[in-house]
Amino acid sequence: MEGIGDSALVVARSLQSGRRLRRQLADKLFTGALSGIALFSVVAVLAIIGVIIVKGLPIISWSFLTSPPAEGMTAGGIYPMIRGSVLLMVGTLVIVLPVGILGGVFLAEYAGTNVFSRFIHASVASLAGTPSVIFGLFGLAVFVLMMKMGVSLLAGCLTLALFTLPAVVFTTENAIRSVPESFIEAGMALGLSRWQILWKIVLPNAIPGILTGVVLSTGRAAGEAPPILLTAGIYYATGALPRGWEILKQPVANLPYHLAEGYRQGGVIPEAIVWGTCLTLMLFVLSINIWAIIVRTRVRRRQRW
Amino acid sequence: MVSSTAFLAGEYIAVETYSLSVFYGETQAVKDVSLPIARNRVTALIGPSGCGKSTFLRCLNRLNDRIPGFRMEGRVRVLDVDPYGKQVDLIELRRRVGMVFQKPTPLPMSIYDNVAIGARSHYGLRGKKLDEVVEQALQRAALWDEVKDILKRPALQLSGGQQQRLCIARMLAVEPEVILMDEPCSALDPISTFRIEELMIDLAKDHTVIVVTHNMQQAARVSDYTAFFMYGELVEYDSSKQLFLSPRQKATEDYISGRFG
Ligand SMILES: Nc1ncnc2c1ncn2[C@@H]1O[C@H](COP(=O)(O)OP(=O)(O)OP(=O)(O)O)[C@@H](O)[C@H]1O
Ligand SMILES: [Mg+2]
Fold it and tell me: What percent of chain A is predicted at pLDDT more than 90?
């Protein structure tokens, strides 16, 4: 009786340890596979960055960044392109900030959960998944041709604003929804109006989240060529800018456009300049993202709870 | 069931519910509660967890509005207004009915702004006038001496007990007539608790105070009247002395002697 019990126990133990071994092995394999994939993606990113730095760095200098192209685009710098990209970003922000934030506020606070708000949600979500080239074509058809803006800074900013709108709306909505309910109730209990609660309690708390989302998505938009290719870009630009509102009606050279054209023109722009532009664009987007992180941590620190 | 409210004879009734029932979707949180509450007295609401005390309290200033599935039946009267009536001015109602929550909820702004935000909005006060109101409110909440030199600091840097007194000051700054307190001391140490109890007694000189508490000693110490709830129903309502010394209902006796909940 005892013997049987013992051997049964031994069998059970060995079965158990066999199972444990297999589980540990599976665990190891899985961890190994995951680390491999992670490592691969890191290496791939580093390789891309490395190539761009190695190829782009030699040409980058103060004068490359601050002087216009020369000798029929075959020499000189890329100052007008940097300036154009900055102009496009600023214009896009000016348009998308109020519209996107209001949209997010509406969805989070006023729309409720009815059919209408679900319809808006679905629309914004599918807008977010639309390839950027579609936005470019839409901008060309509507802003450039139908509304007769021509290929211009304004048309480009509007197109980019549309492109970034879904991300801004959603990040605003999420940031607002994540403001603690207890703050809102405290405001209600004090007899503040819905508008005051939104303006003085909810928005200040949602701002870090909103800003991060806005800057990250405009950063992404800054690197997108398709939306501005047909709406705002121009191949050649001198150093001078038109004055006043005229600036909105003129096309602008910019970094992504310059890159795209650099290849399309079949070798007019020297390879070194293309790589230099590439690196500059990368740093441009990177600095926007870093700025977003700094702003967020600053604001967070000021209002920790 | 509560049959007689004779013990309230001579009191002015500031707040009253008639057959109030509250539902969250399918669940009924408050069942047919008729409760008159005396002006300028402390009334304690006691009862086991989940019996609907907070729900009842939040009907008086309509803080339940945002909760999905919330529905109420019966009638409520607060200072001669029906909070659920058609023409009610919610903002004015909530100004007259202040509330302190279980967890201190200072807003993420400065100590000064926390107290000033309501007074600014309701009375349009600015500058010196506003400073005065803020100081008075903080004095009354027994917090002034501790914060008078750090008014610009974020309120979230205060201790829990200070934060709760700040929330009381914030509420006082809009000059409410009725004060609702939902377990205001449950997150506090004995000394802070003692100070807030003192404050409740002081406030009841010119405010109608309704306080939810799980602390029997506290209810016995500070309140004039006590209502005992169970499963959403009002089981017993009497002067605190009567209710704690010789409860009429078996359930009340079991609860206050610690044999239940
Ligand atoms: N937001 C809500 N949604 C759905 N049901 C709720 C909600 N709030 C409370 N309830 C339910 O209503 C009933 C009463 O809750 P309430 O918070 O009023 O109790 P309470 O007496 O304050 O309890 P406690 O002493 O634990 O604070 C409970 O059954 C609870 O589950
Ligand atoms: Mg409660």
Answer: 17
Q: Please report the pLDDT score of residue A269 as a whole number.
A: 80
Same domain, A45 and A155: no
Asked if A106 and A208 sit in the same domain, the reply is yes
Mark whether A150 and A50 lie in a shared domain. no
pLDDT at A2 over 60: no
Buried residues in A257-284 as b, exposed as e (16+ CB within 10 A): bbbbbbeeeeeebeeebbbbbbbbbbbb
Instruction: Tell me how many domains chain A contains.
Output: 2
B98 touches chain A (CB under 8 A): yes
Question: How far apart, in whole angstroms, are the C-alpha atoms of residue A170 and residue A161?
Answer: 14
Ligand 1: residue whose CA is nearest its atom 29: B50
Question: Does A51 share its domain with A161?
Answer: no
Within this chain, do residues A10 and A145 fall inside the same structural domain, yes or no? Answer: no
Rounded Cα distance, B170 and A190, in Å:
8
Give chain B's domains with CATH numbers.
6-106+177-256 (3.40.50.300)
- pLDDT score of B182: 92
Nearest to B63 among A188, A204, A303 (CB): A188
Residues of A in contact with B105 (CB under 8 A): 182-183, 185-186
User: In angstroms, what is the span from residue B24 Cα to ligand 2's centroid?
Assistant: 14
| A243 torsion bin: left (phi>0), alpha (psi -120 to 50), beta (else) | beta
Residues A79 and A104 in one domain: yes
Q: What is the pTM of this model?
A: 0.77
In terms of domains, do A210 and A285 share one? yes
Domain that includes residue A33, residue range: 2-57
Kindly tell me if the per-residue pLDDT of A246 is higher than 80.
no
Q: Which residues line ligand 1 (CB under 6 A)?
A: B 24, 27, 29, 49-55, 67
Structure tokens at A56: 């782009």
